[in-house]
Structure formats: structure tokens, C-alpha cells
Design a protein that fits this description.
single chain, mainly alpha, 3 helices
């Protein structure tokens, strides 16, 4: 007995659904591998780099004596006290 068109379309829909599910699971595992540990480390490195650049820029524009603490020194002292 020959199969009808509806059987063919049902089979194609099911295959497309399964493929979408596989793709979704693959993307999900990629996100899990990339974001948790990698994201936090990158953010810390970027923050440290930004602090260093800001401090270098502040050194270029410093006016006054060395006895005046700059804002970065005050912030780092406050953050150490909190920890």
C-alpha cells in the first residue's frame, strides 16, 4: 500500500523537530561551557586593566603634591577594609 502525502509531511515535520531539538541542546551546552567560569575571569581582568589605565591617566594629569591621596588609593583602601 503506498503511503500518502500526509505521512510524508508528518515524517518531515518530526525530523525537523528533532533537528531543532539537537541544535538547541548543542547551543545550551556551548553556553554552559563558555559563560560560568570564563565570564567571571574575563570581567575581573578587564576591571583590573581599566583601573591601571585610569591610574596611568590620572598620573599624567596630577596637579599638586604627592602627599594628596588620589581617589583610586582611597577606593582601594575602603575596599580592603570591607573585605
Amino acid at each position: 500500500m503506498p503511503r500518502g502525502r500526509s505521512t510524508f509531511t508528518k515524517r518531515q515535520k518530526e525530523q525537523a523537530r528533532q533537528q531543532k531539538q539537537r541544535d538547541k541542546n548543542e547551543k545550551k551546552t556551548q553556553r554552559k561551557q563558555e559563560s560560568p567560569e570564563g565570564g567571571a575571569v574575563v570581567e575581573l581582568d578587564e576591571m583590573q586593566e581599566m583601573r591601571e589605565l585610569a591610574e596611568a591617566q590620572a598620573a599624567l594629569f596630577r596637579i599638586g603634591g604627592d602627599e594628596e591621596p588620589n581617589s583610586l588609593e582611597l577606593l582601594s583602601k575602603n575596599s580592603k577594609e570591607v573585605e
